[in-house]
Amino acid sequence: MIMNNTLFFFSTLFPRILRFLPLHFHPFFFHLCYFIVLSVIGFLGLKVSNPRTPSSPNDLDLFYTSVSASTTSSMVALEIELFSNSQLILLTLLMFLGGEVFTSILDLLLARNKLIQNKLRSINPSSLSDESPTNATHIELGLVSIPHPIPQDQTLSDNVASVRLKYNCLCYLTYVVLGYFVVVQFVGFSLVSLYMTVVASARQVLRKKDINVVTFSLFTVVSTFASCGFVPTNENMMVFKKNSGLLLLLLPHVFLGNALYPPCLTLVLTVLEKVTRKQEFSQLLKNSNNLGYRHLLSVYRCCLLVGTVFGLNVIQFVMFCSVEWKSEIMEGLNLYEKVVASLFQVSNARHAGESVFDLSSISSAILVLFIVMMYLPPYTTFLPAREEEDDAKRKRKSTVECVVFSQLSYLAIFIILVCMTESKSLKEDPLNFNVLSITLEIIRQGILNFLSFCNILR
């Protein structure tokens, strides 16, 4: 009976729900309902499963953790080691389903159904009625059928062909994103599991904490790819700061699921277009802005994004090493371990949120730098990207105007510089020298006049 009801739901009700939602709900409300339902289910799962400790955690803390995992916010109200193996797997599932790449797949499914319904309704409103099961079947197959009699108007025929091509593009893009999503995390999970099994020092850490190797590998890879920042240890990645191999295996996932996801997706589409020679892949690369998938950027924009991400990480790495190279947080690490740990830390500061050093021991200048980097959206580009359709506007916009920073950016730069020069005073006299007082003093001493001058140069 249960099996029959399940089959009835997925064969009849679920397709109707997908066809109903795009036309009657704004995507914001769909995402809101999705995350609410996911968080509630996660909370109930955490509630019924048994934790490691005999005492049960507070319900509010469990719900807060569920919301944080499903929205990939990386905020936790409980020590992560209090959760049992089954609870860690549940949190992994929440991060898996709440990641931005996975939710973008749901957006593609909704866009597909919305496209077909709108176009069919414009052609013939009766084609959306419940008495037309043949049309629903054709919709699922990606074939737009026009009820008899077939119009002979060439414009209508071209419109149908355009709809069919766009629908096929969305279908191909959905499969590519799903394949990318699964393959990247499966490869990462396999490599991390192999590393944790082979390297005795890393395996010993999990054995002391009674954490399953498979659970740790899956949890950490999914969390890193989703930019959540959860790690099954209370110390985050600080206990593995000497395991440079593990940090290097996780480092690509910091970018593949975040800032470098559009360039990687474009690269996959380019390879598929070269191999298959299909028109759909060519359309995806040429008309990326017309599909409504915000993660699909033009090749030119992807190149600028790669350059920006690389440049920002180099700046962070150089500044972090210049300030913290001989500090207490680097004690016990050799040259190679310092380089890898520093690279992992600065990359996670803007993206995934994992930490290999104690943030409370990092200097104020670097913390301000991390705050600025976290403030920047993932697809920010600081290189000249002049894509206006108006030729006159394109000519008026100079290269200097493309790369000039905002006023807040200049303030942040000066605050970081002062914190670096006054690092000794910040440690010895924190009452008079702190980030807040330095910020107020910089603003008061006339930096705003300099910003006004920079604004004139625009």
From TrEMBL:
CC per GO annotation: plasma membrane
Protein source organism: Vigna mungo
Protein name as it appears in the record: Sodium transporter HKT1
Primary location recorded for the protein, binned into one broad class: membrane
Domain of life: Eukaryota
Family assignment from sequence similarity: Belongs to the TrkH potassium transport family. HKT (TC 2.A.38.3) subfamily.
Subcellular locations according to the entry: Membrane
Record-linked Pfam families: TrkH (PF02386)
Membrane topology reported for the UniProt record: Multi-pass membrane protein
Molecular functions per Gene Ontology: sodium ion transmembrane transporter activity
Chain segments annotated as transmembrane: 29-50, 89-111, 172-196, 216-234, 246-272, 298-320, 356-378, 398-420
Keywords for this protein: Ion transport, Membrane, Transmembrane, Transmembrane helix, Transport
Statement: the UniProt record of this protein carries the keyword Nucleus: no
Record flagged with keyword DNA-binding: no
